[in-house]
């Protein structure tokens, strides 16, 4: 690691341990007057989720494929009608378990009404995310059940009628439906259910062209101010925003000091560095307890907005990535790998292990193979369990043949690859760490 990387690493640790980590040092630092470069660095990271949400909204309302959905509607759902395939290169690490339906919400003109159909035992969820990417509520099999119902979505300060009120922390937000698919034969039934998820209400506004994280510091902070005006921060951020007032306050000057650009470049470097920092336990990463509801953990919130926008909280789903050969998530070998599960993974819904090819720029996408099998899990047809109740999953570039073939997850023919294990509705022993996945071994 060179000197510049060491400085960046020190910056990440400083943010985690101080201003942006919600630690006791945060309260003291919020009242100090640091230099403008430091302020710009922290303000850029603080505003990142707002900017990423606005960017996703703009793309999706134009019909660009995002999160597996063919665009989105404003105050109404647009439905994806297929699972992601290797041709889908819009978003990194897609799942092949659920189809998506998506709506961007504008509550400024009043509440929205939501109708949920009876889904029976099928897994479903609707994540209601505010513009800061917090999950304000997750309706689904875990929280509502499968009988369906009527719900009212209300914004800050609005009166909601009816027993099933979902209150949003910001006037705008994102509602994302995940609906389980059990193979091609199940697709028509899933489409029929999708069409019965209905959102209605007053029409929303049109949105200006907002800056993205790649824009200049001046345009970025101009966009951040506009987004904060439309979706005000919670009261718990008051002291921090006081410190950021020169950049994010309503009366902020449009002309920026040279130190601001330097601080923004530091923030971008820190974000890139932090996305690659992963902690593995027995060969797997595990989500933090505050995933999807970040409180004052602003750095973590920003990093997830970059690499996993729309992530569910752990109570709904857990995402675990293997450490691979390099200890950082990549596998490179041409032989077989084995994952032996001692028994069933403790979930109340389902689990799956998905294969991704790794690109040079750090993205992960599905990879074509002779079986057209992109994931393997407890719903895979023909899966063979051992007599003692354990399960051997075989991972590799070539078909292992024989009894192993039914439990084979194909890897790319060449190049590095990575696997992620998802569990939906994990049980307490998985959530609290009593259950840990065994490491993948190289044969």
Protein architecture, described:
The protein is an alpha+beta fold and 443 residues long. It folds into three domains: 3-53 and 215-275, no CATH class; 76-200, Immunoglobulin-like; 298-442, Jelly Rolls, CATH 2.60.120.600. The chain has ten helices and 21 strands. It has helices at 3-17, 24-30, 36-61, 187-194, 217-230, 238-243, 245-248, 258-275, 298-307, 428-431; strands at residues 65-66, 69-70, 73-74, 78-79, 98-106, 112-116, 124-130, 135-140, 149-154, 165-167, 172-180, 198-200, 317-321, 337-341, 347-358, 364-365, 375-377, 391-396, 408-410, 417-426, 441-442. The strands form five sheets. Strands 3, 4, 5, 7, 8 and 11 form a six-stranded mixed beta sheet that branches. Strands 13, 15, 16, 17 and 20 form a five-stranded antiparallel beta sheet that branches. A hairpin with a 5-residue loop joins β15 (347-358) and β16. α3 packs parallel to α9. The chain is globular, with a radius of gyration of 23 Å.
In summary, what is this structure?
The protein has 443 residues and is α+β, with helices and mostly antiparallel strands. It is built from ten helices and 21 strands. Strands 3, 4, 5, 7, 8 and 11 form a six-stranded mixed beta sheet that branches. Strands 13, 15, 16, 17 and 20 form a five-stranded antiparallel beta sheet that branches.
